[in-house]
Design brief:
Structural class: alpha/beta
Number of helices: 12
Largest sheet: 6 strands, parallel
Order of helices and strands: HHHHEHEHEHEEHEHEHEHEEHEE
Radius of gyration: 26 Å
Number of strands: 12
Shape: elongated
Oligomer: single chain
Helix content: 40-55%
Length: about 325
């Protein structure tokens, strides 16, 4: 592999001159620049990113932690983040914590050792040590989707409770009264907030007394939704509609309903949450609460770059509003 000394020797200039051409740190004569650039091309020289970062104190690299790389919701946000970073001249290093706090802590240390310029975090649930870990890194950080008790971090998330309200009010408007909920993991803020929205909508309609008997949990996975729906369908008094805490669980719930001979939405209406791309291709296409994923990803990067560039020092929290996407998995309650 060619070194900076090899380039200098071929171009007939000093190593310092090559460095100035590569890093743009000082003007070099057109003739000298041309010789250096010709030598770089001929030798296939690639400047050391580590060495350059030590001089500039910047690696032009952003780290990102997500809790589940197999969840299309996170994958769709990552795609936006990566595109936005690339457009701004930054590379993205992605780490999947698999919802394990210990792995999350290890990855934070790995990213710090790589001298990343900033960090975007979708936290794993139940990690009480995360605020201290983030504070110890001393780098610009943006939290996405899940809030952490750290006033120094920026935050961008969706109004999850409002999304639960939208979903349940939609079902109530169709005449449904016995509406079950398949929530995500207990103790995870977005899951609890969506459940709170479901409860609030039922309370508005005068049905809060029955809500405890209609709540199930599915772990934000298709299997979790599948198992929860089977449990719901084994109850003595079956609900006519179900609000499901994310679209992956709703996919599992749809399969369980079909296996039990139910037609969605004729026999039971179903509403999901997230509006992942696959939800429009389910059978039937899924009514769901849409999170503004493109805006979440773009805002996360833009807010991070503001901090990296020193254009802002004060923490900023952005709460985005969800929207209901009505498709074919919901219908008016009553005889066909």
């Amino acid at each position: 592999m060619a070194t900076i000394k090899d380039v200098a020797l071929r171009a007939g200039v000093s190593v310092t001159t090559v460095s100035h051409v590569v890093n743009g740190t000082r003007a070099v004569s057109p003739e000298g620049r041309a010789r250096v650039e010709d030598a770089i091309r001929a030798l296939g020289y690639v400047p050391s990113a580590v060495a350059r970062s030590l001089k500039s104190n910047s690696t032009r690299t952003v780290g990102m932690l997500i809790p589940n790389s197999s969840n299309p919701y996170f994958a769709e946000i990552v795609r936006v983040v990566e595109d936005r970073c690339f457009g701004a001249g930054y590379a993205l290093v992605l780490c999947n914590t698999d919802d394990e706090p210990q792995r999350q802590g290890v990855y934070l240390q790995v990213l710090a050792q790589r001298r990343i310029d900033g960090l975007i975090v979708v936290s794993s649930g139940g990690d009480a040590s995360l605020p201290a870990l983030l504070a110890g890194l001393r780098m610009p950080t943006v939290l996405v989707d899940r809030e952490v008790e750290d006033p120094a971090c920026d935050l961008v998330e969706t109004a999850h409770m409002q999304g639960g309200l939208l979903a349940t009010r939609h079902l109530l408007s169709l005449g449904h009264r016995r509406i079950a909920c398949i929530g995500g993991p207990t103790g995870l803020a977005p899951s609890e907030q969506r459940i709170d929205g479901w409860r609030m909508a039922l309370a508005e309609a005068g049905h809060s007394a029955t809500s405890a008997a209609l709540l199930w949990h599915g772990g934000f996975t298709p299997q979790g939704g599948y198992e929860a729906m089977h449990a719901i369908l084994r109850t003595a008094e079956r609900p006519s509609a179900v609000f499901v805490g994310n679209d992956l669980m709703a996919m599992g719930a749809l399969r369980a309903a079909h296996e039990c001979g139910l037609r969605v939405p004729d026999d039971m209406s179903l509403v999901g949450f997230d509006d992942i791309e696959l939800s429009a291709y389910a059978s039937p296409p899924l009514t769901t609460v849409a999170q503004p994923k493109a805006r979440i990803g773009a805002l996360a990067v833009d807010m991070l770059l503001e901090r990296i560039d020193g254009r802002r020092q004060i923490g900023r929290k952005v709460l985005l509003q969800p929207e209901l996407r009505v498709r074919d998995s919901t219908a008016r309650f009553g005889p066909s």
